[in-house]
Amino acid sequence: MPVANSAAMEIHLEEISKMTKPDRHAAVIMDQAGWHTSKKLRQFDNLSIILLPPYSPELNPVEQVWQWLRQRHLANRCFKDYADIVESCCEAWNNFVGSIGTIKSLCSREWAELGN
């Protein structure tokens, strides 16, 4: 998505809802960004939104992902233009998603393990 706002968040939630099997219910864990807590967001019968406490980045695995991307690919660089920024971010992301071990180590939480 080119922007982070309530409309984009609703599209994202709608896609999660569509991909959730009919006999399942999804829990979406989010921080309390304004577009996550907007009263304008449509509710979905097969989704529950769980908001993390404010100021708790250690509970949000994506914070470790952003840190990893910055430290290894994006920090301390000069970009030629917007296209260079987008290309560099795409390369960094593709490098990240290609490493399942890194994803597991950064994003798993012992307290969040689900049974089969």
Verbal overview:
With 116 residues, this protein is mainly alpha-helical. It folds into two domains: 49 residues, no CATH class; 53 residues, no CATH class. Helices cover 48% and strands 9% of the residues. It contains five helices and two strands, in the order αβαβααα. It is globular, with a radius of gyration of 16 Å.
Tally of DSSP helical segments: 5
Strand order of the largest sheet: 1-2
Q: Roughly how many Å is the radius of gyration?
A: 16 Å
Structural class: mainly alpha
Helical content band: 40-55%
The general outline is globular
Beta content: 5-15%
Ends distance: 32 Å
Average predicted local confidence, pLDDT: 87
- Unreliable spans are none
Q: How many distinct domains?
A: 2
Q: Helix and strand succession?
A: HEHEHHH
Q: How many beta-strand segments?
A: 2
The main β sheet shows up as: 2 strands, parallel
